[in-house]
Amino acid sequence: MFLKMEEVGKTFNDKQKESFEVFSGIDLDISENQFVSLLGPSGCGKSTLLSMVAGLEEVTSGSIKLEGNPIKKAGPDRGMVFQQPSLFPWLNVKENVLFPLKGQWSKKESEERADRFLQMVHLSRFKQSYTHELSGGMQQRVAIARALAMDPKVLLMDEPFGALDEQTRHILHEELMKIWQETQKTILFVTHSIQEAIKLSDRVIVMGTRPGRIIADFYIDIPRPRKRDDEKVIEMERKVMDLLEGEINKVLKEELSHEVSH
Amino acid sequence: MKLAIKRIAFLVIILGIWQLVFSAGVFEDIVFPSPVKVSTALYEGFVDGDFMKALGASFRHLFMGLSLAILFGTIIGVLLGKSKQADETAGMYLIALQSIPSIVWVPLAIMLFGFSEFAVVFVVVLGGTFVMALNVRTAIHSVPPQLVRAARTMGTNGIPLFFRVEIPSSIPYFMTGIRLAWAFSWRALMAGELLSNGPGLGYSLRYAQDYARMDQVIAIIIIIGVIGAVVDQIVFSRLERNVRKRWGLAKS
């Protein structure tokens, strides 16, 4: 398997409080070129799992292997796009995309790659702009170009369109689909939007909470581009919704009881 | 343009009141010179070259003192910013040291180094170092963790991370530190020079006082005020503003 998670668990050890187990025993196999969404209510640990694949969080138990090599720390073979664009404000758009290429590629290759990926996200005109001069959607496109430019084996996306307005999100969905088809990257995509997950993915991993775990693994076999009013899409959404409703209620109930007891 | 006219008009009114009080003879001439007399003292001071010499000496002290203050302040600030251990141990004392008015260091400097120019520079260094250190510490602490995480996913760690992310990210706070270090050093400089054996603007001020030359005293106070305002506005504030704009922290 390309990306293999075996019995993966994560426990946060807080000095003051008792340790908190986010999830344990996560098994997941992801093959190359797959577009996989991790979908679940807040608190299910989907973002934590993604950070562990990125190498930003340590694995408490089990193992995550990329092409057979266990993941120990962050590295350029796994590109990450965060919910906040996380661009460097002191660099212009092109310099941001060049940032991870320094020392990895020759100067000429770096320039070419930066230009190519900025063109892919339709930002060639804004190469010299500073990031705070761009809109949120444009900033996120720079972040995607920056992650892709270093030619990662996997592209990790942590609710990348969560902070954008509906219109912009829709446009970026289309662009991401094109980019994915063009680059043939494996994408692991975290979201809490059922529609987003079904619209984009080959496969939707539904996660539940308390304790965090995988409750379903759907293969979405609907031809692209997927229309929102496609019957199969609607049916799929309903199926996932039914599954998640129980989980969401569980979270709500717990939060309410928490409120009452305080 | 309108603003400039308003400001000039305000100055003219102040000078007018000053002249009126002088003409009314409320105070003795020796403690309350006329605007004309002060202007003459200013003019003569510059023509004689006395003020220029004093200014040159003051700027020399300031340049040496401020450079060292920025250097030491940066080293201390980076140390406290990077090491939690060091910050917990010494951070509190830094705030205490920063709150000491720089004139307090003058007796210490004189006892250590005598009435020398070095004593003046020493006071200037102490005046600027602590405020610089505090701001550099804040600068290091204010690096957004999100940017560090992003850099790590791009394979940037350790020393490259420090130079390529943490330093550039903290430049705006660093600039604030430099502006404040200048302001504190400038005040410390005057305190130090006032009690020194010269040369320097502060020394000239005391010299004028010793000879009961109120016109010169006021003239020198005006020079000190004007230089302080001009250097802050034209050099440091502008520099800080430009950096903040460039870093996207201020609306252009």
TrEMBL record, chain A:
<keyword id="KW-1278">Translocase</keyword>
<protein>
    <recommendedName>
        <fullName>Carnitine transport ATP-binding protein OpuCA</fullName>
        <ecNumber>7.6.2.9</ecNumber>
    </recommendedName>
</protein>
<dbReference type="GO" id="GO:0016887">
    <property type="term" value="F:ATP hydrolysis activity"/>
</dbReference>
<dbReference type="InterPro" id="IPR003593">
    <property type="entry name" value="AAA+_ATPase"/>
</dbReference>
<dbReference type="GO" id="GO:0015418">
    <property type="term" value="F:ABC-type quaternary ammonium compound transporting activity"/>
</dbReference>
<feature type="domain" description="ABC transporter">
    <location>
        <begin position="3"/>
        <end position="234"/>
    </location>
</feature>
<keyword id="KW-0067">ATP-binding</keyword>
<keyword id="KW-0547">Nucleotide-binding</keyword>
<dbReference type="InterPro" id="IPR050166">
    <property type="entry name" value="ABC_transporter_ATP-bind"/>
</dbReference>
<dbReference type="GO" id="GO:0005524">
    <property type="term" value="F:ATP binding"/>
</dbReference>
<keyword id="KW-0813">Transport</keyword>
<dbReference type="InterPro" id="IPR017871">
    <property type="entry name" value="ABC_transporter-like_CS"/>
</dbReference>
<dbReference type="InterPro" id="IPR027417">
    <property type="entry name" value="P-loop_NTPase"/>
</dbReference>
<dbReference type="Pfam" id="PF00005">
    <property type="entry name" value="ABC_tran"/>
</dbReference>
<comment type="subunit">
    <text>The complex is composed of two ATP-binding proteins (OpuCA), two transmembrane proteins (OpuCB and OpuCD) and a solute-binding protein (OpuCC).</text>
</comment>
<dbReference type="InterPro" id="IPR003439">
    <property type="entry name" value="ABC_transporter-like_ATP-bd"/>
</dbReference>
UniProtKB/TrEMBL annotation, chain B:
<dbReference type="InterPro" id="IPR035906">
    <property type="entry name" value="MetI-like_sf"/>
</dbReference>
<feature type="domain" description="ABC transmembrane type-1">
    <location>
        <begin position="55"/>
        <end position="235"/>
    </location>
</feature>
<keyword id="KW-0472">Membrane</keyword>
<keyword id="KW-1133">Transmembrane helix</keyword>
<keyword id="KW-0813">Transport</keyword>
<protein>
    <submittedName>
        <fullName>NitT/TauT family transport system permease protein</fullName>
    </submittedName>
</protein>
<feature type="transmembrane region" description="Helical">
    <location>
        <begin position="161"/>
        <end position="184"/>
    </location>
</feature>
<feature type="transmembrane region" description="Helical">
    <location>
        <begin position="119"/>
        <end position="140"/>
    </location>
</feature>
<feature type="transmembrane region" description="Helical">
    <location>
        <begin position="93"/>
        <end position="113"/>
    </location>
</feature>
<keyword id="KW-0812">Transmembrane</keyword>
<dbReference type="Pfam" id="PF00528">
    <property type="entry name" value="BPD_transp_1"/>
</dbReference>
<comment type="similarity">
    <text>Belongs to the binding-protein-dependent transport system permease family.</text>
</comment>
<dbReference type="InterPro" id="IPR000515">
    <property type="entry name" value="MetI-like"/>
</dbReference>
<dbReference type="GO" id="GO:0055085">
    <property type="term" value="P:transmembrane transport"/>
</dbReference>
<feature type="transmembrane region" description="Helical">
    <location>
        <begin position="62"/>
        <end position="81"/>
    </location>
</feature>
<keyword id="KW-1003">Cell membrane</keyword>
<dbReference type="GO" id="GO:0005886">
    <property type="term" value="C:plasma membrane"/>
</dbReference>
<feature type="transmembrane region" description="Helical">
    <location>
        <begin position="217"/>
        <end position="236"/>
    </location>
</feature>
